[in-house]
Write a structure and sequence with these properties.
- By secondary structure, the protein is of the alpha/beta class.
- It has two domains: about 250 residues, RNA 3'-terminal phosphate cyclase domain (UDP-n-acetylglucosamine1-carboxyvinyl-transferase, Chain, Alpha-beta prism), CATH 3.65.10.20; about 100 residues, RNA 3'-terminal phosphate cyclase, insert domain (Dihydrodipicolinate Reductase, domain 2, 2-Layer Sandwich), CATH 3.30.360.20.
- About 30% of the residues lie in helices and about 30% in strands.
- Strands 5-6-8-7-12 form a five-stranded mixed beta sheet, with helices on one face. Strands 1-2-4-3 form a four-stranded mixed beta sheet, with helices on one face.
- Helix 2 runs parallel beside helix 3 and helix 5 packs parallel to helix 6.
- The longest helix has 18 residues.
- Its EC number is 6.5.1.4.
- GO terms for molecular function: ATP binding; RNA-3'-phosphate cyclase activity.
- It comes from Stegastes partitus (bicolor damselfish).
């Protein structure tokens, strides 16, 4: 255990002030080997402190880095993590609720990259949950883009889990890296393809999937006339625990950029409305001419901060989540970020370039 340096203090209530601060801080603590103390966790939220999902994420990181974790209990607003050596092999995390497996992956993936060999992560909870990426997004959008940094992982969806029951399970295999490469994504090109899936699981009728799909296609057609839009309706048979419905729509550009819009069914909400919500989200994310959507933006910050060299990514409006991730990354690594506003003379579009001189974190275990 490296006890020499005093723990870095992180204010968990700054900026976005949510679980994301925990995820970025804990992962970077694990990778850099610096102890952290996070205070005022989720101070402004309606249920302050750690929720089951945050707790299982922290325990997973602590397990990954043979660390010691203090203050880790439900409702706790202060924790400290003293990391040890990152351990490859099998690790399990279970939110025991519909807490998001995708958010568990967000905190664990960067750590596992710096292990001495491959890691298997068994993540249990919700695969398609509110206030978090859906697993389909993680696999279809996040994964191909993060591979540009040299990250390689496989994700096997064993069981889908929905709110409120959870019960989903994904198995993720992560290969370690020596170091991460910087990524430049500044030219979007044209949107060349739009596709997706609308699904129902459990006892819900297939008609819901068809209605979500049809409504989404109609909404996108109003704005994008020239592309064939293929949104497949699906009935999830054996692979789901409980009932749920949702839709994810993905747009691809000529330069390999990916964007998504998604929505989840809720009790008493018409299927058409869910389809339209996803379509509008997608359209909003391709109007600005950036190279990533608003959700990928903040998820890439930690990889830019760790990479060796300069990354540049063009985005639409910079989200509070992204600003928060940058703030934490600059506190815990040597990375330096700058954000430049770009006005386009030809259109009313404003984009931003997020540039990062990465810290070049090398894997001492490989």
């Amino acid at each position: 255990m490296k006890m020499d340096s005093a723990a870095m203090e992180i204010d968990g209530s700054v900026m976005e002030g949510g679980g994301q601060i925990l995820r970025v801080s804990a992962a970077l603590s694990c990778i850099t080997g610096s102890s952290i103390k996070i205070t005022k966790i989720r101070a402004g939220r309606s249920t302050p402190g750690l929720r089951p999902q945050h707790l299982s994420g922290l325990q997973l990181v602590s397990d990954l880095c043979s660390g010691s974790l203090q203050g880790a209990s439900i409702g706790s607003t202060d924790i400290s993590l003293t990391p040890g050596k990152i351990q490859s092999g099998s690790h399990t995390a279970d939110t025991q609720t519909a807490g998001s497996v995708c958010l568990l992956l967000q905190v664990a993936l960067p750590c596992a990259l710096y292990a001495d060999a491959a890691s298997q992560l068994c993540l249990k909870g919700g695969t398609n949950a509110e206030m978090a990426p859906q697993i389909d997004y993680t696999v279809k959008v996040f994964k191909p883009i993060v591979e540009k940094f040299g990250v390689h992982f496989d994700c096997d969806i064993r069981m889908r889990g929905f709110y409120p029951k959870g019960g989903g399970e994904v198995m993720v295999k992560v290969n370690p890296v020596k170091e991460l490469q910087p990524v430049i994504m500044t030219e979007r090109g044209n949107i060349t393809k739009i596709h997706g899936r609308a699904y129902v699981a459990g006892v819900l009728p297939f008609k819901l999937a068809k209605d979500m799909s049809a409504a989404a296609v109609r909404a996108i057609r109003r704005e994008i006339k020239e592309l064939y839009i293929n949104i497949q309706p699906f009935q999830e048979k054996e692979k789901s625990y409980g009932s749920g419905n949702g839709i994810i729509i993905i747009a691809e550009s000529s330069t390999g950029c990916l964007f998504a819009g998604s929505a989840l069914g809720k009790k008493g909400v018409y299927a058409d409305k869910i389809g339209i919500e996803a379509a509008e989200m997608l359209l909003r994310n391709i109007r600005h001419n950036g190279c990533v959507d608003e959700f990928l933006q903040d998820q890439l910050i930690i990889f830019m901060a760790l990479a060796k060299g300069t990354s540049r990514i063009r985005t639409g409006a910079v989200t509070l989540h992204t600003q928060t991730a940058i703030h934490i990354a600059e506190q815990l690594t040597q990375a330096k970020f700058t954000i430049t506003k770009c006005e386009d003379e030809l259109s009313s579009n404003v984009t931003y370039i997020i540039e990062c001189q990465g810290s070049g974190a090398a894997n001492p275990n490989l």
